Every structure is written in C-alpha cells, then in structure tokens.
Amino acid sequence: MNYHHLYYFWKVADSGHLTKTAETLHISQSALSSQIKQLEQWFGQPLFERRGRKLLLTQAGYIAKQTAERIFKEGEQLVEQLKNGASSKDTVIRIGHASTMSRNFIEQVISELMKQPHARYRLHSMAHHQLLTELSEYRIDVALANTEVTSSDQQIWQSKLLARQAIYIVGVPGYPISSLQDPQLKRQQWVLPPENTPIRGAFDMLSTEYQWRPEIIAEADDMAMLRLLVRDSGALAAIPDVVVRDELQSGLLQRYLQLPNVYEQFYAITVKQPFPNTAVSALLQRFNR
C-alpha cells in the first residue's frame, strides 16, 4: 500500500472537499483524485460516494479513515515527542469528563493539573459512550468517569482509580436523624440517582434492610442536578458530600449519616498509545495512593 495515497485520502476524508484539500496540499485536483482512485483500486472497493458536490465516506472509507487517523496521529505524536522531547514548553492536556459527574470533584482534579508548570488544559463534557469514542480517536488524552471500563479485544483501555468518595444522607438542617434505625427514615421524601446506578442499588438494599419506605420524588443521573434538587426540595439525598461541598460549608445543607460500605468511584481512563502524553502520566501519578 502507498502511504502517500493513504495520507491524501485521510486529508480528503477529514475535510470532505477535494478542491480545498488539493489547495491545502499544493497539488492539482486531478492529481489528488487520481491518487485516491489508485488507493481504491488497491483496496478493491470505493472509499467515497459523491452526492452533488459533497464526498461521503462509504463503509469501507469510514474504516480506512479510522485506521489512517490512528496511523498519522501517532506519527504526529512521534515527531512532536522525539523532536521536542522535554524541551516542549506548553503542554496541552485534553480532558473529557462524564457530564453526570460532580463538578466539585472535577475541580479537584484540575487543581492538581494546574500545579504542573507549563501545562494548559482543555475540558470537554460529554456522555460516557462519547468519552470512549473520543479516546479511541485520540481527540482527548484522558477521560474522567464514575464507571470503570474493562479491556476488550477491540480496544485496550487503562482505568485508574483516582478517588473513592463515601456516600452520605444529606438534607436541609432540622431532621431529627441520628442513626439508620431512626424512625424518621421510615417514611421520607428522597431525591436519588436512577435505578441503574451503583449508589441507587446500594440505597435500595439498605431500604430493604432497615424497612424504609422512601417516597422518591425525583431521580437524576446528573450530580449537579441532584445538588439543586436536594437544596431546593427539602427532601433527603444519598450522594457524595463533595457534590454539595459549598452548601455544607454555608449551612444550607447538613450531612446526617454515612451509608455503610457505599462509595462513589472516580476513574481516569486512558488508552494505550505508543507515545502517551507525558503530562497526563505526571498528573495521574499525583493520585497514587
């Protein structure tokens, strides 16, 4: 396979425009088109289909683009690392985080990052499945999530436990609650994470054990939303106290009890790369226990 042809294909696939790509690469449109056709002949199937003036990837083209992306992105990383090495002054760390995570916890991670000299960061909030896509396509360097990811045959993930936060019963001040057996907990209004989450599963087991009959008035998988709900509704919540750190400090909310053996886990997820971002490695080292 001619890697010059693959490179030209990758550039066209990325832009979606033959003419613009030809101008950027300083070659004629006919020469660029000819080299892509040679690549298609080598593969034995078309990589693009034309719709008007647009070039759309075929299924084979999409697969080829993904592979080319990895090849040339890793090549760019190789050049950057071997050329600049430790002398590179400004390091950009691209961080993705699950949109449902506590902003206060993310702030703790960022505060560690900001202690590193010459480091800058870009922060992107997205759904959990998007994090893995962005990692696999090298669009972010590290993902922060509250769900662990295991390795598979298709992709080797590296999942590092950053922190484990205890879960507390939290609410507005004034509840006469002193233990999990307290009658006040038998019938209370609650705002909770949805049923498919570890915190909710643990809460439901405790409800059965202590014969609580909770009235669940709201569910949210977003910790920021749970923070607002418990603050404004007067209901109780089962959440990590880092989520409502400011409200606890100001006295708007009160931490009543810790739920036994129930924790929220926070992970940093990376994908194995031949030339990983050294600033990310340095950041994660700060969380070694």
Automatic annotation (TrEMBL):
Keyword Transcription: yes
Database matches in InterPro entries: LysR_HTH_N, LysR_subst-bd, WH-like_DNA-bd_sf, WH_DNA-bd_sf
Spans traversing the lipid bilayer: none
Alphabetical keyword list: DNA-binding, Transcription, Transcription regulation
One GO molecular-function entry: DNA-binding transcription factor activity
SUPFAM superfamilies, alphabetized: Periplasmic binding protein-like II, Winged helix' DNA-binding domain
Pfam families assigned: HTH_1, LysR_substrate
Domain of life: Bacteria
The keyword Transcription regulation appears for this protein: yes
Domain HTH lysR-type: 1-58
PANTHER family in the cross-refs: HTH-TYPE TRANSCRIPTIONAL ACTIVATOR BAUR, HTH-TYPE TRANSCRIPTIONAL REGULATOR
Family statement: Belongs to the LysR transcriptional regulatory family.
Protein name per Swiss-Prot or TrEMBL: LysR family transcriptional regulator
Record organism: Idiomarina tyrosinivorans
